[in-house]
Design a protein that fits this description.
Layout lengths: L9 E12 L5 E7 L6 E4 L1 E4 L6 H13 L6 E9 L1 E5 L2 E13 L12 H6 E7 L1 H6 L3 E2 L4 H11 L6 E4 L1
Parallel strand pairs: 1-7, 3-9, 5-10
Antiparallel strand pairs: 1-4, 2-3, 2-8, 5-7, 6-7
Amino acid sequence: MPTPTPEEIVAHRPSARVVLLDESGRLLLFSARDHKDDSMRWFTAGGGLESGESYEQAALRELREETGLVDVDLGPQIWQGRPWRTVREGVTYEVTQRYFLARVPAFEVDTSAFQEVEKAAITGYRWWSVEELEKTSDLLRPAGLPALLKALLTDGPPSEPVLVDG
């Protein structure tokens, strides 16, 4: 039997993400530059689950590591990401993401607990209003983020998680 190629071996990577809103309805996003085309992409706080962690535990840990926040009241899961694949260091990962809502007063982000991979990849962060998201030409994740955020701020959390594209 032939040895499978890296593209044929798929590792599951469950991830927890946080839609972190301040009292003005602004959303905290982190940025990274795509080295293929030098474009900028923006995404919510969060990352992969560690062994034995629930999605909620991972979301709170990621908030602590990426923002310095502790004792956050994590709200409901609001979005469910469609699975997507990425290749890192020759390994193909199928990523599944759950997005949770958290509301906090505006604060100064503390990235001092970033892991090495985050230090190497993340180029910055900022708080975004819906209007600013609607105007940017940068890539936003999940896809359709301005409309998703507008609906969340207008209608509140959905009764069931909304399916989104990573």
